[in-house]
Amino acid sequence: MRNASRDTAPARMAVDGYQGAFAALADGYTVGFEEFSADVDAAPLFRGLPDDRCQCPHWGYVISGRLILRYADREERYEAGDAYYAPPGHTPVVFTGTRVVEFSPTDALAATQAVLAENLHPAGVESLVPPRVRQHTRRPGSSGGIRLTCARVMTPSCASSAPANFWCTSVWRRLTGC
Predict the structure, then answer these.
(1) Please, which residues have CB within 8 angstroms of residue 13's CB and are 6 or more apart in sequence?
(2) Does some domain include residue 70?
(3) CB 78 within 8 Å of CB 66
(4) pLDDT at site 41
(5) pLDDT block averages, 10 residues each, the chain of length 178
(6) Residue 100 lies in a domain
(7) What is the pTM of this model?
(8) CA 61 to CA 80: how far, in whole Å?
(9) Is 138 helix (H, G, I), strand (E, B) or coil?
(10) Based on the domain organization, do 140 and 109 belong to the same domain?
(11) Is position 73 within any domain?
């Protein structure tokens, strides 16, 4: 995918105080359109990552509201209209009404959000991980001999267990219960 908007992003997630829409872009990057309806200090969610901090770099823009990125040696504050770069080693504090657009390396984002999901699981949240959009091609003949390329949603845990060239993620889910 070369472009995306909040409305067209195929992967969505929501928990109390947070909504996100995500799209995998070309060349291994994901864009996230994120909105916060509550104040959130996300530091506890990063436990288990190196230094208990986010290890995924992000390039972002604050549409509205404000956020703080905490590092071991400093804090950086951003507000509406600011663009930012968040190198690995941060934890975010985000305030009610904040909306951001972030670009992140897809693999690093998926690894980080898998840890977030594990940390949220005891609170009853089944998954915070934005589903990955995997491109795949159906077998010739599966649709009247026409070769179709389509996008299916697959969680990272399911994606990591599926062979890279598996022809259809929905079939893989049925076979594995993923």
Answers:
(1) 19, 20, 22, 127, 128, 129, 130
(2) yes
(3) yes
(4) 92
(5) 89 85 91 94 92 97 98 98 98 97 94 85 58 38 32 43 39 40
(6) yes
(7) 0.70
(8) 8
(9) coil
(10) no
(11) yes
